[in-house]
DNA sequence: AATGAATGAGAGTTCATTCAT
DNA sequence: AATGAATGAACTCTCATTCAT
């Protein structure tokens, strides 16, 4: 007798709940200080049940890192590298990114841990790195377009600009880690655009 | 019987050795996965001896974070906020910072951990934050000078520029965590200066 | 609604399948390393269903030990202690036993476990011991007959001979545990008869 | 500062105590039902200390099996396959073996487990098997000598006799597992000699 | 001061069993 | 009857810390 649709739905909800709590706890206390028992308690289930949904702690961590990435990546990649007006597209992109980074602080602390200890979290790091590859090259494309059109200065390589920009985003996120998610973020949009060397009037 | 000068010297050397290895191990494997035993082995002493020099693991971690900070902070603060030519001073500062950040990658991964989990490492975070307060305001002062002199554009608040710059430095460091310490870093100096909004000819 | 004959038949088949797999797994991996889940998988059913047929793991083990014993005991006791020609009967018996022991290796490893840990498997051990009592005395009777008739030497007590013989059978089985079930076994028939002290011409 | 001789002595005593209790518990309750905690309690030390002496449970079990074997093997091999009077030597050997098997019942139950589950305890089984190889061939040599001298009948291969004999010993040990170690054993010496086919007057 | 044996709290994980579907 | 999600007791093992030598 297979599980009913209702059952499956309930399980999906439970799984999401665990993952959500896992992201919070992993990001706040780190991998080792987040015990399965704490995740279970936070999720309102018995600790044995966590193992029904995730084979082991490693796997839980992996899914916490990777599944959220899958959700976020289309949002981060939501800009057109071949836009008619590259500068305007860049401004819009920065605006979106800053809003997004401001809102997913908890998850990004998790990302920070993975990057900071990439040898230990090799598997997770690879997934992040794969996305990051796509991300930085897509931005670089847009920058190149802006340089060709004369909207951006050309003395810096587009890829270097792109890396600088993404680093800046992560740096801000790290820096404001303890700040509540608020307006401060919007102050940084006009600074971010400077990284790309706009040709000002 | 008081310790001879020679004895004291020997102990200082040993203590430094432990701290040095602790920084490496804590930054590579994180707090929990760095055991006292591993630090002792890396330092060439018995694990029991670590407790002769540091009361407990927490304390060892604390000193690993704080003592190196004490060494680095004068280097990071080595610029004159009242310089005659603020723009030139800024360029020189950026150059120094980038060289420095490129060379202390291991330590900065430790810093990243503390910042990323500031609730957990509250005590260490406070020390870092105290320095960071001084650091960002000193930079902001120099930026304000540059704005007054007309060398820098004024549409962004000096403190915001300062925070953006320091975030950028940390972001680059995180981003290039897996890179050997090399020339890539120097590529970012011309990008960094952009953050301050230079009035270009 | 009572179960149909067909249903009952199906269940019997399923129960036998479980028992068969349980014997294999228990004998190969021991009690603790044989999980209900593994037995279920080997039997092609869900692990929950095992509990439909056997109250708990202990009970499953018990039936695995005892039910096969019930099948085997008439075969082991298939000789006539009052045979006209006791020596010939003994030879025939040994032949049967050796063939049988050669063919039920898996089950006998289970028996070995129960005997080897009789305190732990007290209940199962008692069942085996009850059979063994009958078994050894029946053999002893035949030996006594052979001694009276002068076919066997009399310096050893018939019961001692009987115990020696049954021990020998188990010992061989244990010894050849890793051997495939083959001809080696038949080599031991002429040795076995020696245990009874035949009066050779 | 290295450990003093006294310290080392104390540790050796403690290690032996653990091993002794481990043999008892493993043989009575089996591998899985013998917890490290029980071994520690029986040995009068803290549970953590077991790991000071044995890397893990597997290792403890291994040493329990192997170290005792090392002690026993010279005793079991203490006969001369080239003796002047092979039959007499055989009788003396049987006598020694039977006394020995009677006295090391606990250990032999451990051996039984290893043999009975040789796949699981592969490493231990190999060690036992290596000894057994030497053992059975040395006996076979003595038997061959006895056959040449005409003291033993020749219709059975010496090696087969040897295997039969060693199997018999283990079988008796298994059979009398629940018996206190007493005289019953001596009854089996005259039966054992029969296995070798003595040419009786 | 230096060593490392001793300790036990606490972690991850397994699995028999229950029970709702 | 059949399924498999839920539970938590019990296990192995790690490691910071203490302390006798």
UniProtKB/TrEMBL annotation, chains A, B, C, D:
Q: Where is the HTH tetR-type domain?
A: 12-72
Please indicate which superkingdom the organism of origin belongs to.
Answer: Bacteria
UniProt keywords (A-Z) are: DNA-binding, Transcription, Transcription regulation
- GO molecular function terms attached to this record: DNA binding
Listed InterPro entries: DNA-bd_HTH_TetR-type_CS (IPR023772), Homeodomain-like_sf (IPR009057), HTH_TetR (IPR001647), Tet_transcr_reg_TetR-rel_C_sf (IPR036271)
- Entry's PROSITE patterns? HTH_TETR_1 (PS01081), HTH_TETR_2 (PS50977)
Keyword Transcription assigned to the entry: answer is yes
The feature table lists the DNA-binding region at 35-54
Which SUPFAM superfamilies does the record match to this protein?
A: Homeodomain-like, Tetracyclin repressor-like, C-terminal domain
Keyword Amino-acid biosynthesis among record annotations? no
Q: One Pfam match, by short name?
A: TetR_N
Give the protein name, as stated in the record.
DNA-binding transcriptional regulator, AcrR family
The organism encoding this protein is Sediminibacillus halophilus
